[in-house]
Amino acid sequence: MTMKTVSTNKVKGANMAVDSKRTLRQCGRIILGAALLLFLAAGAALAWPTKYTSCSSCHNGAEPTATVSVALNGVAGTTITVAPGATFEIDWIVRNISGSGRMGMELAVPTGWTVATGTANAPALAGWNNVWNLTAGEFWWATSYSTAAEFPSSPVGYTINFDGPSWDSGTRNAAMDDATAMDLDGTANTMGTDARITVPAGAANGTYTIQVTGVGHAAGGGAKSYKTQAITVTVSSGGGDTTAPVVGTVTPANTATATFVDGTFDLSAAITEANTLSSCQYTINGGGAWSAGVVSGTAPNWTCTATNIAGGADGSSLTLNIRGTDNSANTGTGTAITRTVDSVAPTTTDNAPAGWQASDVTVTLTPADARSGVASTQYCVDTTNSCVPGTSGTSVSVTQGAGTAGTQYVRYRSTDNVGNVQTTVSRTIQIDKSVPTDGTLSATAGNTQNSLSWTVAADTGSGLRATNTYDLRFLTGATPPTCATGTSVYLGTGTGYTHTGLTNGTQYSYRLCAYDSVNNVSAGTTASATPAAGATAPTLTTPTATAILATTATLGATVTADGGAALTARGTCWATTAAPVSNCVAEGGTTVSAFTQARTALTAGTLLYYRGYATNAAGTGYSPDGSFYTEPATQASTVTFTGVTATGMTVNWTRGSGDGVIVLMKSGAAVDANPVDGTYTGYTANAAFGSGTQVGTGNYVLYKGTGTNVAVTGLSASTTYHVAVYEYKGTVDTSGVNQGANYKLTPPTGSQATAAAGNNAPAVPSALAQYQSDGTTVLASGGAATNNAVVFKATVSDPDANKVILEVDINLDGTPDCISGAVTGPATATAACTALADGSYSWQARAKDSLGATSAWTAFTGGPPDFTVSLGIDIGIDTTPPTESGLAATPGDTVIALAWNPADDGNGSGLNPTSTYKVVRSTVAAPADCSAAGIYTGNFNSYSDTGLTNGTTYYYRVCAYDRVGNVSAGQTASATPGSSCTINTPTVAILGSNKTISVDGGFVDYTVQVTNNDAGACAAYGFDLVAVDGNGAAFYPSTFAADPLNLAAGASGQTTLRVTARANQANGTTNSTYFYTAAGGGHAQSANSNAMTTTITVSGGGCVAAGNYLNANGDQLTTSR
């Protein structure tokens, strides 16, 4: 690349050397940056200045699209007239750069003209970017070389460089543009910069040319291209304009005063210029940096204005000035002024009182401003806290109408001298000029005393005074005092007072005055009473509390004296503290006697105090206090058994809401006695059965405390034990009228048989195998399951011939994950584990017999892993309960054996492996669901319910549970335990002796007896009774009071046989009567009973022979009726 000869120029960071052919080699690869390069084209082939490294093929072809825009002294255009010695500014932009996407600039001027850095102005060029102002970038310096061959009128070329760090990520110090990196300005294909040109003072008048030239530059070599813009400068002395504009007073505006300006302000100055004022600038730092202002007006009166100037932080000191440049490049600068930034609003304090006031309030506002000073303070007053301050002043009067109370708001703000406005402050003013509204006052005379009570007053303003709310005053006589006269006998917050030490027969008049929080006093409510001798408050003793449940109890007391005046009410009160006067309810009676009343809505599980009360004209008397604990709100629940052996088991339960539980156990029959309320320390618990306190007969205390299980020892083999668990409240014994621990009745129960003596554990399972979910396709060791269910099989047996289940553990943690149904071994047991998550599994199995004994675990030996699951299904939702079928109940002597088919959970989460089944029972009807306490919870599909009562029908429901708690609807069955039933013929008899009827048409009753001779487990039977009369003409058919007569097997029962004579029968007439039981229910007809003879003997005044009759009065004989 050949260029015009150039004098040696030192360029920072690189050297430019001249060879013998006066050739300048430009070195350095062009990389996009944000530095700006200005250069002048030299000859037909222009080069990039300021290269740092060597390169080859560094030039591109034609630049077809780039354009150059120029502004002179801030005014767009390419001509300007200046005087000799004048300085003017050139700003230019190159747009639409294509080709390599890189562009540099040079500047060529006439001989003797000099180039310097431009100013930080905003020229009238669309899209000007302030980062192109050289004053905003690095330190500026330039080198020069000859461009006389290319531009004879502008023979001096300049390259402008930047000292210090580069403007981009590279190491260049030249101003460049790049379509990719975009350098400092962030804009691709566009570059701009500025410079100031100084005309020599001795320049001759005439027309001069300045060339602004841009060159495309990249790889490829070949033809070179550049863009050149000529600028015409007319130098004119005498006829030219050499007078600089005159800048008038620099004036801050908008938010400025004295020596302060706001954080954002305006600045202006009048400028006198006879010709055209082409631009103006302002500075806030004494000329360190100038920014463009806006020119307005016409010659000779111009104005330079700058708006929304950011002054910086509060307290910053600014040196403000304005300068103007005419179209001849003459610049005039004004006189600088100094101002301090005030950007902080004033503060205002007040003396607004807190809380309610009794009179009008004057609020004094005290504004302050640390810099420009306070210009004004405005306020407003409203009741909605929404008004806009608009009244000027610092004294705010807040008034409230007489007899009223209300809340008002004082809202204020202050403004300083530069226009900073304080955020509106709100203060609450509450004024109460209203007086409280009185309640009612009642006075009841007594012996040398008056009892006064009143209802509470009300106040809608500041509220009643928290202390000394009421002032009770009195005067003797009929006229009550005012609230300021008489004698005050009570000052407080209560609602009653007994005025004692009075003179019987003297009238006392009272006024009760109420005060609010600001000491407004009510008009007062009045009452009077005259004490008299004789009447006193009633006397009560002996508080009683019985039938105490969770929220109900029967409370009472004894009224022993009415105090000399009739009772008007009596009842009971209760509370959680002693000497209760709350929750008082009248019982309804008014006699002097003992009384009780049923109380409801008590607090469950709580120590309550209570007492009786009675009221007469003299006042209210109370009995001594009593106390008791209410039952806990919730009972313990869900009794289960684990770890069952021949001599022990663990009893488990779920706690309720009491202070603890007491657990009773009985052998062979259900627990039939409850712990006694009020006894706590008297019950000693011992987990060794039979060693704890005995409650009733055979019911022993196993446990007393706050836990959820007890390990029981000392049991007998093959024996059923029954358990009841009671929540209790209170841990003390009854002492007098203070009752102790209260046990919640209707406990959850359960029963469990111990293992047989010498029961042997089942054999360790053998022939372990794993299958796909169909149960027939072998799942190879280490193989993958085809779905998320796997079937396991093994041979199980039990040396005692007990039924056995297979328990499978698929993660080797010793806890069963799925189980089989019960089988009688040796046999193959099959278990299915479902809902398996993705992963690798190794498994082990053990056998468990029906008495709870288990074998050792034995591991499947196929792995690890034994099998894998990889189906992408790790989360499932199971809302479908398991299904079960086939519950059968087989009765025996005091026992019913239950068995059912194994449940199935389909494709759900799988059966609960440990609490698979729950059995509930009833003696009334089949349980509706399995929500009641269970008699069995476990994983065996059979259970023997022992210790039952022969002849009683028991109803059962068994439900199955899956892993997520879904429960099946359940299967039901019923049975009646008993030994074998033998049906026998009953025996019958009429007890007593023959009888007579002494009233015409009268009757006699005989007692008959039937014995049900059935033996064993026979059900009760109702026998049909049949009477046989020998004289149906004179007697009606005999009847039985109970027919049929229902009798249990082996039981005897009696009823009445009535024999009735017809009217008008002759004395001496007889009837022979016997009975039997009819055949039925497998019973043969009984033998006839013994016969009884009934004789008619109607007496009346004398001997009545057969055939004679008494008249209607029974005092005369007749022969006919």
Look at the structure and give the CATH class of the largest domain: Mainly Beta
Terminal CA distance reads: 172 Å
> On the 0-100 scale, what is the average pLDDT?
85
CATH topology of the largest domain: Immunoglobulin-like
Radius of gyration from the alpha-carbon trace, in angstroms: 59 Å
Total number of strands: 89
Determine the strand fraction and express it as a percent band: 35-45%
List the domain count as a whole number: 9
Overall structural class, as computed from helix and strand content, comes to mainly beta
Overall 3D geometry?
Answer: flat
Architecture of the largest domain, according to CATH?
A: Sandwich
Poorly predicted sequence stretches spanning 5 or more consecutive residues: 1-61, 164-175, 216-225, 1101-1121
Tally of contiguous helical segments:
0
Q: What level of helicity do the residues show?
A: under 10%
Q: State the major sheet.
A: 7 strands, mixed
Architecture overview:
This protein has 1121 residues and is mostly beta strands. The chain has 9 domains: 10-235, Immunoglobulin-like (Sandwich); 246-341, Immunoglobulin-like (Sandwich); 347-432, Immunoglobulin-like (Sandwich), CATH 2.60.40.10; 441-529, Immunoglobulins (Immunoglobulin-like, Sandwich), CATH 2.60.40; 539-629, Sandwich (Immunoglobulin-like); 651-744, no CATH class; 766-869, Immunoglobulins (Immunoglobulin-like, Sandwich), CATH 2.60.40.10; 888-975, Immunoglobulins (Immunoglobulin-like), CATH 2.60.40; and more. Helix content is 0%, strand content 42%. It contains no helices and 89 strands. Strands 16, 17, 19, 20, 23, 24 and 25 form a 7-stranded mixed β-sheet that branches. A 6-stranded mixed β-sheet has the order 5-13-12-7-10-9, with no helix packed on it. Strands 51, 52, 53, 55, 56 and 57 form a 6-stranded antiparallel β-sheet that branches. β16 (256-257) and β17 form a beta hairpin. The radius of gyration is 59 Å and the shape is flat. It starts with 9 loop residues before the first strand and ends with a strand. Mean pLDDT is 85; it is low at 1-61, 164-175, 216-225 and 1101-1121.
